[in-house]
Specification:
Blueprint (H helix, E strand, L loop, with lengths): L8 H15 L4 E3 L5 H11 L4 E6 L13 E5 L2 H11 L3 E3 L4 H15 L9 E3 L5 H10 L2
Parallel strand pairs: 1-2, 2-3, 4-5
Helix pairs in contact: 1-2
């Protein structure tokens, strides 16, 4: 979520998760702006890793945060989402808002329909996703 601030649990979780990914040698791609995106990018930069920020001119927010190694500028939300998905060898989903939910839903559906390789994991971090997963699984076993 773009609203998390230093000291918030979501910010800390993003920072710690990204730090582990960077130490394992992964490049971390995200939306490139503030909140948990900034926390993750900062952790990766401090661990000596690489980050990709996929920003969107339609948001009118300007450039990526200062910890992004490489910025990819897109012109629409759909293009941004497609770019993030194409970049991923796996998908780590932190607690978030409707934007994060959209990203999870798209990746999950693409994987269910066989449009993403089966070896690309979706990793849900935290407990906030559990009720949603149970709800969907009950409807679509």
């Amino acid at each position: 979520t773009g609203k998390a601030k230093p000291g918030d649990a979501a910010y800390f979780l993003a920072y710690e998760t990204a730090k582990l990914l960077a130490r394992a040698g992964f490049t971390v791609a995200n939306g490139g702006y503030g909140g948990t995106m900034l926390a993750a990018a900062k952790a990766v930069a401090e661990a000596g890793g690489k980050t990709i920020g996929v920003t969107c001119t339609a948001f009118g927010r300007g450039k990526a945060n200062e910890y992004i190694s490489r910025e990819i500028v897109t012109s629409s939300l759909d293009e941004r989402l497609e770019t993030l998905i194409k970049l991923g060898d796996g998908y780590v989903v932190l607690p978030g808002g409707t934007g994060t939910l959209l990203e999870l839903a798209k990746v999950w559906e693409l994987k269910n329909k066989g449009f993403l390789r089966s070896d690309k994991p979706i990793i849900l971090v935290g407990r906030s996703w559990k009720p949603l997963i149970h709800l969907i699984a009950a409807e679509d076993p």
